[in-house]
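User: Here's a structure from my thesis project, written as structure tokens. My advisor, Dr. K., wants to see whether a designed sequence matches the one we expressed. Can you design one independently, without my sequence as a hint?
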């Protein structure tokens, strides 16, 4: 069966198709951004701030912003999402601003997108489309690419109808009884059904591949559990400095940029605490407000690394104007992943930007944001506060271990080495045949020591 025409998925205009269909990079498109704010405090973010974040997303997608507009709404409108008067204002601005695209800060229904494009005579995208495009650009691993493609197809499936509306109009939408053109009665709907079958078939294939990769990852996780290696997962709002913190703690060279979603695929590095205990430090994809449901579902396998973690580091940019909303977004996403009960340490990052601010002031800022009193303030960029952070990580990991006392014969020196690498030894004495060791160990490997003689 033939491949799905790209025009069917991305539209027929050059701007709607995006840069991936061109051999050379074309000039950046110009976009007009549209936001909304529900009255009565129902929008957690002010429209101006949310549009500013959308502008950063759009820039990451290689699109220039030429203008913005937002509307306060008691409720959204079924036809255009915003009011028809605002739509006319946007249409009138096209000659003045010369925009190529109109991008909404909220997810639009297929019908709303179709109505807006017909009225504005301009391609209309929404926040979800932009995020999916950015993820597609930044996915580097096979698993990441599959997850992004799966999310894209699930998002596109209900939106295929508008791609073939030109044929539906020619056919009259209902064959001969509807007065369609001779020779073209019905092909629009027929092509639509073909595309739906192709998309559904591709979704089935991708879901099978995702399940296989998930099974492989689960085998790896089970093997890792048996070794007793504890896992620390770094989470946070996009661009909070997670990758920079991973690099600073583990001396890795993970890509870190001052852009939204600069890194996508998770990265894991082995780290040793000041006392030699080893753990795995994992950097995960950044969270963002209005994260598409398709992405949360598609990336669940990857985000299960967070669910398996013994400790979560919630990295927060303390200098951001919307730090409170960002923290709430991360906490809400953790709840969706059933990770709300995992031990969590809040890491207030970028304190180097707070010139002349002392610890007490930072504590007041954290309290004003509704953050837990237990936090660590650092600058991952300048590597400030990392020693205190490492000590706190070690202390919290120790709390998740089990107290144990065992007699380890000299011939089982491998067990003593595992204890030193995976746990904490508080006392160690020797006799003629072995060592009496007391300390703490991860629950997963306690059985190894109990295989030795317990005094």
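Assistant: Designed independently from the structure alone:
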């Amino acid at each position: 069966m033939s491949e799905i025409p790209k025009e069917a998925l991305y539209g027929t205009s050059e701007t709607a198709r995006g840069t991936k269909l061109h051999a050379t990079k074309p000039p950046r498109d110009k976009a007009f951004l549209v936001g909304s704010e529900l009255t009565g405090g129902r929008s957690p973010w002010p429209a101006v701030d949310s549009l500013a974040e959308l502008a950063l997303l759009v820039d990451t997608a290689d699109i220039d912003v030429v203008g913005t507009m937002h509307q306060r709404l008691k409720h959204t409108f079924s036809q255009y999402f915003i009011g028809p008067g605002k739509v006319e204002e946007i249409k009138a601005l096209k000659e003045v601003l010369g925009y190529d695209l109109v991008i909404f800060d909220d997810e639009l229904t297929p019908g709303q997108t179709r109505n807006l494009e017909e009225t504005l005579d301009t391609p209309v995208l929404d926040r979800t489309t932009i995020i999916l495009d950015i993820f597609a650009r930044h996915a580097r691993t096979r698993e990441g690419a599959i997850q992004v493609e799966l999310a894209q197809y699930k998002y596109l499936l209900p939106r295929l109808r508008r791609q073939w509306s030109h044929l539906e109009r020619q056919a009259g939408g209902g064959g001969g009884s509807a007065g369609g053109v001779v020779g073209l009665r019905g092909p629009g709907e027929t092509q639509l059904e073909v595309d739906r079958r192709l998309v559904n078939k591709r979704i089935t294939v991708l879901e099978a591949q995702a399940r296989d990769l998930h099974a492989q990852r689960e085998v790896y996780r089970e093997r890792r559990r048996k070794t007793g290696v504890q896992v620390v997962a770094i989470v946070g709002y996009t661009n909070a400095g997670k990758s920079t913190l991973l690099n600073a703690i583990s001396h890795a060279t993970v890509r870190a940029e001052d852009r939204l979603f600069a890194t996508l695929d998770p990265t894991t590095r082995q780290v040793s605490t000041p006392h030699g205990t080893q753990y795995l430090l994992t950097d995960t994809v950044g969270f963002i407000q209005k994260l598409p449901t398709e992405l949360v579902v598609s990336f669940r396998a990857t985000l299960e690394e967070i669910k398996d973690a013994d400790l979560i580091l919630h990295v927060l940019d303390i200098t951001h104007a919307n730090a409170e909303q960002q923290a709430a977004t991360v906490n809400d996403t953790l709840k969706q992943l059933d990770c709300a009960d995992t031990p969590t340490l809040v890491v207030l990052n970028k304190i180097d930007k707070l010139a002349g601010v002392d610890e007490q002031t930072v504590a007041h800022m954290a309290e004003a944001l509704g953050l837990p009193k237990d936090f660590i303030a650092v600058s991952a960029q300048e590597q400030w506060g990392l020693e205190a952070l490492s000590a706190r990580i070690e202390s919290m990991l120790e709390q998740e271990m089990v107290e144990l006392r065992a007699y380890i014969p000299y011939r089982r020196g491998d067990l003593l080495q595992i204890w030193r690498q995976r746990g904490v030894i508080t006392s160690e004495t020797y006799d003629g045949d072995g060592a009496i060791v007391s300390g703490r160990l991860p629950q997963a490997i306690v059985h190894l020591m109990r295989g030795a003689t317990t005094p």
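When you compare it with your expressed construct, this may help: Residues 1-22, 162-186 have pLDDT under 50 and may be disordered.
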